[in-house]
């Protein structure tokens, strides 16, 4: 039996609040000017958006708020109603609650009901895992239209009363790397001329016997006064490993498809930070491909970020163009890839 093409009908995104630059971040946390310079030179990210107001500490947007906005925009752009969605999947590392699942709260907001819903609890590859699950279900022929989301609300980890200078560097780096946001896409097996087709999704866990590169703790009432560090980023391990794993993911993806490097028109590289992205792109060495990056301007929005890249890329693709997206999750080391072709 011939398998159907899976078309991307639309991609949409949402960001909370105004952009926060490095000077504002340094001033808010009473950090010296050298800290701002460190962000510029070592991280290379200029702006990020937070769901929390940095002056008042008020949380203005939940993950469900951001996800519902992106989802509604994606459905509108696709020209379909919530009642036409057959399956819904969310990838996130920062759900609003452990229960109920945030995907179900978003579904309720936008009017999706009576369909299977899934929430992938994962880091930067969660968006690809969500796409892969939806893709597999559509390929089975049992579903026709999928709504896929990736979203993060990292501001919940910001303590506006804490002395940032006293924090270990592995925790400080999280506050400048990450921002909040959401993305959504509509996939369909139906006829969709002049839309991108997903040619392949590649996912592989490669973390056996490797310590985590990132840890985000979850505290309950019984251990909320724990002295465990709430977030940790082994930036050195990540800087050493991510370019290599990104290259492996790209090679795996091209081998699966039988594509050559010079077949690629657009490259959507991993988006840990501005500096890291430059290093990764240099290591991937695809001079004929146009890079699609946005981390410098919106920060690392985790599982939302591939949707921001796709939103930009899809507006540029011409018939016959090919694009590949690559992601690496450093929490327990997952490499992922996505291949698209414009029909």
Automatic annotation (TrEMBL):
The keyword Acyltransferase belongs to this UniProt entry's keyword annotation: yes
Database matches in InterPro entries: ACP_syn_III_C (IPR013747), ACP_syn_III_N (IPR013751), Thiolase-like (IPR016039)
UniProt superkingdom: Bacteria
Domain named Beta-ketoacyl-[acyl-carrier-protein] synthase III C-terminal: residues: 254-328
SUPFAM superfamilies membership: Thiolase-like (SSF53901)
GO terms of biological process kind: fatty acid biosynthetic process; secondary metabolite biosynthetic process
Pfam family, one: ACP_syn_III_C
Gene3D superfamilies: 3.40.47.10
GO molecular function annotation: 3-oxoacyl-[acyl-carrier-protein] synthase activity
Keyword vocabulary terms for this entry: Acyltransferase, Transferase
Domain Beta-ketoacyl-[acyl-carrier-protein] synthase III N-terminal: 120-196
Name this polypeptide is given: 3-oxoacyl-[acyl-carrier-protein] synthase-3
Lineage: Bacteria, Bacillati, Actinomycetota, Actinomycetes, Micromonosporales
């Amino acid at each position: 039996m011939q398998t159907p093409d899976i078309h991307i009908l639309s991609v949409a995104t949402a960001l909370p609040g105004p952009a926060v630059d490095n000077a504002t971040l340094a001033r808010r946390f009473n950090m010296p000017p050298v800290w701002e310079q460190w962000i510029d030179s070592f991280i290379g990210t200029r702006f990020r958006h937070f769901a929390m107001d940095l002056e008042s500490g008020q949380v203005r947007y939940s993950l469900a708020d951001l996800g519902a906005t992106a989802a509604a925009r994606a459905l509108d752009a696709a020209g379909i109603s919530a009642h036409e969605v057959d399956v819904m999947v969310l990838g996130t590392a920062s759900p609003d609650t452990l229960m109920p699942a945030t995907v179900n709260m978003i579904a309720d907001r936008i009017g999706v009901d009576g369909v299977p819903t899934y929430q992938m609890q994962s880091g930067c590859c969660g968006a690809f895992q969500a796409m892969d699950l939806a893709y597999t279900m559509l390929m089975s022929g049992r579903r026709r239209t999928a709504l896929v989301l990736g979203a993060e609300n990292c501001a919940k980890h910001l303590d506006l009363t804490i002395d940032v200078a006293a924090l270990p560097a592995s925790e400080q780096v999280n506050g400048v790397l990450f921002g909040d946001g959401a993305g959504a896409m509509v996939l369909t097996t139906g006829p969709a001329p002049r839309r991108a087709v997903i040619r392949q999704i590649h996912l592989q866990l490669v973390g056996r016997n490797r310590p985590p590169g990132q840890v985000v703790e979850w505290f309950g009432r019984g251990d909320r006064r724990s002295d465990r560090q709430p977030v940790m980023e082994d930036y050195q391990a990540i800087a050493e490993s991510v370019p290599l794993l990104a290259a492996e993911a790209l090679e795996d993806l091209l081998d699966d498809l039988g594509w050559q490097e010079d077949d690629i028109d657009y490259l959507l590289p991993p988006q840990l930070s501005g500096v890291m992205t430059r290093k990764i792109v240099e290591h991937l060495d695809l001079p004929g491909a146009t890079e699609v990056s946005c981390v410098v301007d919106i920060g690392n929005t985790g599982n939302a970020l591939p949707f921001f890249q796709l939103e930009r890329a899809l507006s540029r693709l011409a018939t016959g163009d090919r694009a590949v997206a690559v992601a690496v999750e450093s929490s327990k080391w997952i490499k992922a890839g996505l291949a698209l072709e414009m029909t």
